[in-house]
Specification:
alpha/beta; 12 strands
């Protein structure tokens, strides 16, 4: 199986940029990715952060991308399931899959931040149960001619959800995992997993991925499951440029994320609040050297290739979601150059 290269996109809104400009520059990057042969475009779901992103409606964006591309896969990373009505979501995701002729990858998760839940009026403490229930309803809505269901949050009687997805039985489902207990649970369901290093380090992923693969085998699924890493990636002509150019943006991002983590620790329904506070404090004081070692992949095409080959070997990765503008502050033309080098100089070494 070829290694899958994707770009994780937040439709960033950098300082001083209008919303219209944020859409325009992001679509320029999407169009270039299609032209340069990238495998997948991944769409975040970010609410209530006007200083950061205009991407609050990933499936709407996926439709727009489906209409302006022919080849590239379009993924959600991630659709936050507990905030959605399952029937509406089943209809919209299946519609995108039809419009794109089966190019949707349906990435789902719960999101670690309670602020949006509070704004949407959904208790964060219910997010695990709501996630499981919504996922079950989606699969049944996509495969059963008429759906009847009685759960804790939703009940349906003989509803005929349409359209059905283009892909059968449904678009590939990938689930984001952060906590250790989630990895075996995803494996039991038979789905691919997203791993990330925003909170931890690349080294810490290994035991969780091993637990996922073991649970996959125990469940009797064929193969060994699939693991995809989301991480900041930046490619420049030289190692020196690649280290220097994204530094301000990446360091800003870790401070920003650290503040939000500390803030979220005090919110209702959050588990392991002390651990959140500890990690949030840690991120606010991380050095760039530590980030380079533990969290991000930057360098010349040769260095980035070596690092990814090493991670694929160590962790058994099936692909990567490259955050090409982590922190929103990397200028558009530098993001374009980095993306071009990734597609033209790094990707060919893998396939």
């Amino acid at each position: 199986m070829a290694f899958e290269f994707g770009m994780f996109h937040e439709f960033q809104r950098t300082a001083g940029m209008s919303e219209e400009e944020a859409f325009a520059t992001s679509f320029e990057q999407v169009d270039a990715a299609e032209r340069w042969g990238l495998d997948a475009m991944w769409l975040a779901e970010i609410h209530l952060a006007p200083e950061r992103s205009v991407l609050s409606a990933p499936l709407t964006m996926a439709s727009a991308i489906a209409a302006r591309t022919k080849r590239m896969k379009i993924g959600t990373a991630v659709q936050v399931l507990p905030l959605c009505h399952p029937l509406r979501l089943a209809e919209e995701a299946a519609t995108v899959d039809q419009l794109s002729h089966g190019r949707l990858i349906f990435g789902v998760g719960r999101s670690g931040f309670p602020r949006t839940y509070e704004a949407y009026g959904v208790p964060y403490g219910e997010s695990r149960d709501r996630f499981a229930e919504t996922l079950e309803i989606l699969k049944r809505a996509w495969t059963e001619p008429a759906l009847s269901y009685s759960g804790k949050y939703y009940s349906f009687d003989n509803v005929k959800v349409t359209p059905k997805p283009y892909q059968k039985p449904w678009p590939e489902i990938r689930i984001a995992a952060n906590s250790a207990d989630t990895f075996p649970a995803i494996a039991k369901l038979g789905h691919a997993v997203f791993v990330a290093v925003r909170l931890g380090t690349l080294e810490e992923l290994e035991p969780n991925i091993t637990a996922y693969r073991n649970a996959w085998k125990e469940a009797g699924h064929p193969g060994e499951g699939k693991v995809f890493l989301r991480a900041p990636v930046y490619v420049a002509e030289t190692d020196e440029q690649a280290r220097a150019e994204p530094e301000e943006s990446i360091m800003y991002f870790y401070r920003y994320l650290g503040e939000r983590l500390v803030d979220s620790a005090s919110r209702a329904g959050v588990r392991a609040a002390d651990e959140r506070t500890r990690r949030g404090d840690r991120l606010q004081h991380i050095t760039y050297e530590e980030a380079l070692r533990d969290k991000i992949i930057v360098g010349s095409p040769a260095r980035v290739t070596d690092r990814l080959l090493d991670l694929r070997e160590k962790l058994g990765l099936d692909g990567i979601l490259c955050e090409m503008n982590c922190g929103t502050k990397i200028p558009h033309q530098q993001v374009m150059k980095s993306l071009q080098l990734l597609c033209e100089k790094v990707m060919p070494r893998f396939n």
